[in-house]
Amino acid sequence: MPHRSQPVIAKKGPYVVDLESDKTYYWCSCGRSENQPFCDGSHKGTNFEPLEVKVSEDKKYGLCGCKHTKNPPFCDREHSKL
Fold first, then answer.
1. 3-state class (DSSP) for residue 54
2. Which of 7, 18, 60, 72 has the largest CB neighbor count within 10 A?
3. DSSP state, 25?
4. What is the mean pLDDT of residues 31-40?
5. pLDDT at site 5
6. For the chain, where are the E strands, in sequence order?
7. Paired residues of 82 in beta bridges
8. Total domains, the chain
């Protein structure tokens, strides 16, 4: 069974971002992106993949920065346990 590496903790807290319902976003799950909380392709060569995100309404969302959320891509305060 392959070993699953741990994500890089980009930030111990959420990235509060404005998301629009008519767009598709790609949340960085590896923590390596220079464009947090969004993917920039830095996961290449790892076992991580970006998560496609679509929202139902235009508003501010708290996207996970620690990459340990149990409800990706949204912050669930899991960073407080790290």
1. coil
2. 7
3. E
4. 98
5. 84
6. 14-19, 25-27, 51-53, 59-64
7. none
8. 1
**pLDDT, average across residues 16-44:** 98
Residue 39 has pLDDT above 90, yes or no: yes
The residue whose two tokens read 């830095």 is: 42
The first and second tokens of residue 9, run together, are 């903790």
Which residues constitute the domain of residue 69? Answer: 1-8+15-82
Q: Are 38 and 73 in contact (CB under 8 A)?
A: no
Per the structure block, which two tokens stand in for 53?
């995100």
Contact 29, 53 (CB under 8 A): no
